[in-house]
Batch of 3 targets.
Target 1
Amino acid sequence: MFWRLIRGALFRQKGKMLMIAFTIALGASLATAMLNVMLDVGDKVNQELKTYGANIQVIPKEASLLGDLYGLGEDSGAAERYLRESELGSLKTIFWAFNIVDFAPYLNVRAQLLDESPDAAKTGGEEIRLVGAWFAKHLDLPTGESVDTGMRNMKSWWEVDGEWLTDADEDAAMAGSLLAERAGLAAGDRIRVGAQGGTRELTITGIFNAGSDEDERLYVPLKTAQAMAGRAGVVSSVEVSALTTPDNELSRRAAQNPKSLSTKEWETWYCTAYVSAICYQIEEALGDSVAKPIRQVAESEGAILEKTQLLMLLITILSLAGSALGISNLVTAGVMERSREIGLLKALGANNAPVSWLVLTEVLLTGAVGGAAGYFAGLGFAQIIGHTVFGSAISIKPMVIPLVGLLVLAVILAGSIPSIRLLLSLRPAEVLHGR
Amino acid sequence: MTRQAMYVKMITSSLLRRRSRMAVALLAVAVGATILSGLVTIYYDIPRQMGQEFRSYGANLIFIAPPGGDTSGEGVSEAAAAEALSYIPDSAVVGVAPYRYKSAKINEQPFMAAGTDLEGARKASPYWFVAGEWPQDDGFVLIGQEVADTVRLLPGSSFTLTGTDDGGESFSKDLQVSGVVQTGGSEEAFIFLSLSDFDAAIGGNGNYDVVECSISAPQAELEGIAAQISENVSGLTPRLVKRVTQSEGTVLTKLQALVFLVTAVVLVLTMICVATTMMAVVTERRKEIGLKKALGAPDRSIMQEFLGEGLFLGCVGGICGVFLGFAFAQIIGINVFSRSVSFQPLLIPLTIAASALITVLACAVPVRRAVEVDPAIVLRGE
C-alpha cells in the first residue's frame, strides 16, 4: 500500500517531481564538480608551478657553491668533487620517486673557444663555461620502468632560436645569447672548443635566451662534456624538480636536524613529501651528496599552493551553500503544495508517522535519482574544467561520492522536515476546505 | 483608483500576504545574486591578488650596467637607478634592492661581500630564510650559510672583514653577525652588509653592480616598463628575469582560467536553480490566475502583474546580492590573501539586471502556461 501510494504520487506529479529531481541534480553536479576540482587543484597547480624549474639542487658533499659565483673559487684550486652518473637512476627509486617530476645532471667544464675554427672570423681563445647536461634522456631503470627526463622540461622559459639539443647528437652545442653575441655565433655555425681532455668541433644547433647568467654558457650533451673534461661517468650537480607539500613547523625542524625528531615524528616527516624529506632521501640514494632545497622555488610554491587551495575551498563552500539553499527551497515548496493530499490522508485516519514517511520517502527517492544523475554530470563538468584549464584530466576522488550523498541527504531533510511538521500541525478539515 | 495605483496595490499585497513564500523566492534570488557578484569580484581581483603572492619568487626586473660602451662609469649610478625607478608606478613596487659586490676575506678565506639596502632586500627576496635576526643597525651583517659553515660563525659572533678597497689600499673592519641566510642558491656564499658599512669599509664609486626590483605587474606591463626604461634612461640596461616573469605569466593565466570556468559553471547552475525555484513558486498560484481570468482579467494584465512581482523580487534580491557578494569576496580576500578586494561599481547594475532578467524569465514561463489553460479547469483543481 505504502509503495503504491508512493508510486502514485511520483507518477501523477511527474512534472513537479522532475523539476525537484532536476534541481537536486544541478546542485549535486555543482557539488561534485567543485569538490573534485578542489581536491585535485593542489596537484594540478603544483604541476604548473614546475615551470619555475628545479626546487632541489644536489651537489657533491664538500663541494662549494662558490664555483657558481662569478667564476670565483674555480681558481682557488679546491679539490674537484663529482657525483656518479650511474647512480642517477636511483633517484627514481626513492620513497617519493613518484613525486620527482624531472631531473637533469650537469657537468661544468672550463673550455676555450679556439681560433682555428673553420670560419676564421670568429673570435677565439676566449675562456668559456661549457656545461654538459641531459636534454631529453631516456633511462631504463633496474625496476623495469623507464623515465624520460632532462633539462628541456625544466627550462620551459628558455627561448631557443634554432633547435634544442638532443642527447644522441654528440657533436652539437647550444650557446647562450650573451655568449653568442660576444663571439658572433649563430645557429648552424661550427666552432672548435678545447678543454683539458681534448679539442672538439661542434655544430651550434640553437641560441637560447634564458634571461640569467646561463646566457653566458655553452651547453653540450653530457657525454661530450665528460669526454672533453677527461672524466667519464661523473657529473658536478643535479637539479631536481619535485612535487612537494608546503613546509610546516615539523618539516622546518627536520630540515635543521632530522635527528632531533622523535621516532613517530620522524616517520610522519619521512612519509610526507616535504622538500626536506625528499632531500634527505636523495642524499640516501646518491652517495656522498648534499641535496639542498632551492628556497626561491620551494618556498614560493608552498605559499601559492596554499592560497590556491584555500581560494578554491572558499569558492566551493559558497557554491555548495548556494545550491543547498536552492534545493532546500524547492523541496519546501514541493512539500507545502501537498497540503490537500496530506489533509485527505489524515481525514481518512492516517497517523502522523506514516504520512511523514510517505512524503519523506517520495522526496528522498526523487533526491536519490537527481543526486545520482547530478554526480555523473558533475564529473563531466570537472573534466571540462580540467581539460580546458590544465590540459589533463581531473582525477576522480571516490571520497566525493559519500560527501555529495550526505550533502544531498542533509539538504533534502532540512528542506522537507520543517514543512512536513507544519503540514501535520494543520487541521485536515481546514486544509481540505482550501483555507 | 487609477490603474497604476491598483497595479501597485495588487503587487504589494500579493507580496505581503504570501510573506513566507515570497521570502523563499527572495532568498533564492539573493543567493544567486550573491554568488554572481561575489565570484565576478574574485575573478577580477585574482590577477592582482595572486600577482602579489607570486612576488615571493623575488626580483623580476633587474638593472645592470649597459654592455660595452664606455668603461669609465662601471656599474649603475645612483641617479640612473632613481630615474629608472621613476618609470615604475609606486603602487606596483614591492621591493628594490641595489647591490654592490666586492671580494673580501674572512680569516684569509675569500668570499664575496655585497653591500645592499637590507630592508629592500628583505622585501625583494622574501624567500630568504634567516636564522637569527635581520640586521637593524650598522655594524651588523647577514652571512650566507656556506660562509657560516666555512668560518664557523653563528648569529651573534664577531669577525673581521679584510681586503683591498677600490683604491688598492687594504682595509679591515670589525662586524657582528646578526643572522645566517639560507636560500639554496649562490646567496649562501655572500656576506651582506648595509650600504653604509660597505662604503665605510670598501669605498667605491657609489655605483651599483645590479639593482633588483620586485614589481607586481603582469608580464606585458613589465615588458612595457622595461622598454620605456631602456629607451629613456641611459646608463643602465633593464632586464627581465625570464624565469620569474615568464613562469608567472603561465601559471597566472591558468589560475585565472580556472576561476573563470568555475565561475561560469557555478553561475549557470545557480541561475538554473533560481529559475526552477521561481517557477515552482509561480506554478503554485495557478488557481489565483484562474480566478482572475474568471473575473474577466485579460491575459496581458495577468502577465504584467506577475512580471512586475518578478521584477520587484529580482531587483530586491539583486541589491541584497550585490552587498552580500562583496562581503563574501572581502572575506575571501582577507582570509586567503590578507588583503581587501577592490569594489567593481559596474557590478551593481550588472548583478541587479541579471537577477531581474532571470526572475522575470522564470516567472514568464509558468504564468504563460497557466494563462493559456481554461480557468474552469484550473479552478476545479485539475
Note: Confidence is low (pLDDT under 50) at residues 66-79 of chain A.
Target 2
Amino acid sequence: MDRPKKTEFTFPTHINDYPTGPQYAAGYLPETNAGWRSVRPVVDHDACVYCLRCYLLCPDGTVVKDNGKITFDMDYCKGCGVCAYECPKDAIKMVKEQV
Amino acid sequence: MTNLIDIPKVNAKNMTEKEFFYGHKACAGCGGSIAVRLALKVLGERTYTALPAGCMSAVGFIYPQMAFNTNAIITTFPGSASMASGIAVGAKALGQKDVKTVVFAGDGGTADIGFQALSGMIDRNDDVLYICYDNEAYMNTGIQKSGLTPYGTKTTTTPAGENLPGTITHKKNLFEIIAAHDIAYAATASIGYPQDFLNKVNKAKHIKGATFIHVYASCPTGWGTPTETSVEIAKDAVDCGLIFLAEFEDGEYKLNRNPKQFAPVKDYLKKQGRFKHMQDTDIEVVIANRDRKWSRMRKHWL
C-alpha cells in the first residue's frame, strides 16, 4: 500500500526525538479518522466494473487498488459516501457501522 | 503553445498510487481536499507546497499529525504567492531539476487577502502553479463572505432576512482578472469534472512560469449539502452555467464547455442550505447575471 500508515505516537524523551521545525516528518500520522464514521462502504465485487471513479473522487484517498479489486483503508475512511453516490453501477453500499 | 497531446495523459488508471494528502482532518465529503489530493497526485513527489491560512492548512497540519507527504509549509495569509516565489527561485538557485512549486489557497486567500502577492508573482513570472480552490466563502473561520461569494448566498456576515437576500454582490471575475496579467496559462475547473481538472493541472505542470487554476470545490459544511453529493453539486454548478470551464493561453481565451442548453439554476440552488431562502426574483437576478456573462464569453471567446 503506497500510503502512510498509522504510527504510534511516543512522547519525546530526548532532545533528538523532537522534530526540527514546527512539524513532524511528512506522512507522520499518529491518529486515525475511523472514529468519525457512522456508515462504512461495502463493495459488491460482482457489480464493480473497476472504472475507478471512486478512487478518483474519494476526498481522503482511502480507496485502494488491490490487484484489480477495490478495497478501502478503514483507518482513514470518514464514511462521507461520495464513492457510493458516484458509483455508476451502484456497486458500493453504505452500511451502518456496528458499535 | 503547449500542446496537451504531447504531454503524457494522467488519469485514474495510470496516476501514481502514492497519496500525498492523506490522513487529513477535513470534514467528510470535503471538495477542497479532492482538489488538493488530485493535484498533488498529478504533480508528484517533487513538489513544494505552500498553503496560506485556510481549510487545507488547518486540516493538514494538526500537530503532530502531518497529512502532507510532500514538502509543505504554512505561509502568512497575504503572502502565500510571494513565499512560493521564494521557494521557486530558491530551488532554481540550488540547481534542483524537475521540481514544481504549488500554492493551494482558498477563495478568500486568493481573491481578497492574498491578491497583491499573487499579482506580483504573475508579474515576475515565477515558476509557480497557483491553485485556488473556491468554496465561495471563508469556510475555515466559520462561513464569512469573501470576494468570490455569489449573489444570494447566506453567510454569517451576510445573513438572509426580510430586507436582504444574503450576499448582494456578484462573484468577482477572478479568472479574467488573472488573465489580464497576460499570464502564461490560466484555467478554471470544477471537481465535478475531475478528468478536465487533471488535464489542466498536468498542462500547468509542464509550463515554465506562473500558472493559475481556479477550481470550484464544494463544501458540505458551509453549503448545507449532504456529504455524499459534494461532487454532484460541483458538476451541477457547471451544467447550469454558473461556473464555466475555460482556459487562457498565449493571450487567447478558450471556452472548454459551451452547452447548448443550461440545466435549471433553481434545481442547483435549492439543493443547498445556503440558497434555501432565495425568492424567485432573486433567482432571476442570478440568471440575468449568468446570461450577461455567457453572451459576452460566447461573443469574444469562441
Note: The CA atoms of residues 25 and 93 of chain A lie 36 Å apart.
Target 3
Amino acid sequence: MDIDVQKVAMLARIRLTDDEATELGPQLSEILGYVDQLAAVNTDGIVPTAHPHDAAMPLRANIVTNGNHRDALQAVAPKTEAGLYVVPKVIE
Amino acid sequence: MPFSSLSHIQERLNNAETTAVEVAQLYLNRIAAYNDTLNAFVHIDSAHVLAQAEASDKYRAEHGARALEGLPIAIKDIFCTQHGPTQCCSNILKDFHAPYDAHVITKLKEAGAVLVGKTNMDEFAMGSSNETSAFGLCRNPWNTDCIPGGSSGGSAVAVAAALTPAALGTDTGGSIRQPASLTGITGLKPTYGRVSRRGIIAFASSLDQAGPMTRTVKDAAMITAAIAGHDSGDATSVADAPGPQSQADWLAVCDQKDMKGMRIGVPKEYFVEGMDADVRVQVEAALKQCEALGAELVDISLPNTNLAVAAYYVIAPSEASANLSRYDAVRFGHRCDNPEDLLDMYTRSRDEGFGSEVKRRILTGAFALSSGYYDAYYLKAQQVRTMIQQDFLTAFESVDIIATPTSPITAFKLGEKTDDPLTMYLSDIYTIAVNLAGLPGLSQPCGFAHDLPVGLQWIAPAWREDVLLGAASAYEATSHWYNKTPQAFDQPSGGET
C-alpha cells in the first residue's frame, strides 16, 4: 500500500524531515501490509469490543473535589503569563 | 541478602534483624556499583530514598508495620511521582515534574513502601527491547550484550541484578511479562480494571495495566494486593470485582502451593514454528513437572491467536495517536525554540520531542483512524478482538488456567532488530492476546536456553489472579529457577567482598 506519509504526519501534527519521511514510508507500508490480514477475517455480526469486561461505568456525585491547582499545573508549562498559557500569535 | 525476596526482607524487618534504612542503603550501594553498566535506573535520589526509609522505621516503631513497611520498590519512569522527574524516557517530557502522584504510587506510600528511583523503559512504553529509550539502552544482567526485553526493561533488570528486591512495571502488550521472562524474574499483569491507571502516562488506554516485577510469586501477590482496587479517578477501575481479592486471600493461595486436580490448558497455537527449540524444551519440561504435581494437561485451541498481533498493531497505535495528541507544547513538555506560528510550534516540537518508534506508532494510528479507513482498520480490529476474547472464554469452560511460553525466544542481541520494526513487533506474539482479552497473566522463570532465562506464562480467567498465583506458587515451590542469580552481579554489596 502506498501511503502519503507527509499527509498523515500533518494530521498527527508532526513535521517530518525528508529523511524521516523516506525511512518511515516503507516501514508504515510494511506494518499496514501485515495488519491487512484482518481484512480476510469474516467478522459479520461480531460486536466490536468497547471495554474488555463490558463493565458499567461507575457514577459519582457531581461535586468539585479537586480544588484549584492552577499554580502547580502551570509550573510545568513552557510559557505562562498572569495565569494564562502563552502561545505564538494566532490572530493577525 | 541482596537477592532476598521481598517477603524474606519483610520477615527480617519484623524480627528486628535489620532496619529499613539498612535495607535501603544496601540497595543504594548496589545501584552505585552496577547502574553505570546496566542503566536500569534513569533517576536516583539517594537522600530521598534514605529519608523515606528513616520515616518508615519511625512509623514501625510508633504504630507497627503496614503491608509493605520499609520495603524498597523501584518505579518505572511511566508513573507520575510528585518527587523527582517523570519523563517516560522521552525527550518530549525531559525534566517534567508531575504535579501529583499516580494512584498506585499513593497506595504504595500508604502501605509503607520505600520508593527507589525511576527505571529505564522504552519511550512511552513503545518497544520490546528497551532500545527506544531516550536515555540510553539497558543491559540484561545475564549477558550484557543482550537486551532485557521491554518496555519495562529497567524494572526487570533492577530486580534481576538485585538493585532492588521489587519494581513496578506496566503492561500494554507484554511489557511486564516479556522482560520478566527474558531476565529470569516473576512479573504479573493484573486483570484490566483491577488497578487504577490514573497518573500512569497513557499509551493505549484499553490495554494498559500496572503490575509488579519481583523475585517470587508471593512478592508479586503482596504488591498486587497493595495497588489493586477501585479509584474514583479512573472510571475503568472496577469497584466490585468478583472472586477473592483481599491481600489475605492472595497470600493464603501462595502459601498453599497446590495445583492438584488443576486443569491446565495447553494451546496448540502457542507451540508452533518460529519458536526456539531450546525454549520449547524448557517450557515442556515445566508442564511435565506440573503434571507430576497433580495437574492435568489438556490440549486446547485458541483459533484466532494468529490475528492477535495484527489487531494489536491497529488498536494500540490508534489509541496512542489519540493519547499522545496531548503533547502540544502548550501545557507541559518540550517546546521548540522560536516557533514561527502555532502550527510550526506543534509540528516542530513534536518532531524534536518524539523518537522514531513513537512517531511510527502515532502515524500508524493516525492513518488507521483517518477518514475512509476507520471501518477497515480500527472497527475491524475491535471485532477481531472480540473473537480473540471469545476464544479464551470458550477455553475456560473446560480448563482452569492456560500455560504457554512467555516469549518464543530468549533475549536477543542489542541492535539485532532495531532496523526491522515488524520483526520486533512479532516478539510479543505470546503476550498480546492476554491484553486484548483483558485477562490476568503471569510470567515466571522455568529454565535456561543459550545461558539465558526462559519464562513460563500463566493466563487465568478475568478477576482470577488467585488461580494464577496458586498455579505459579505451586510450580515455584518445586523449581529452583527463581533462585538463580547472574554471576557478574552477585557480589553482596556491589563488587566489594
Note: The two ends of chain B are 14 Å apart (CA to CA).
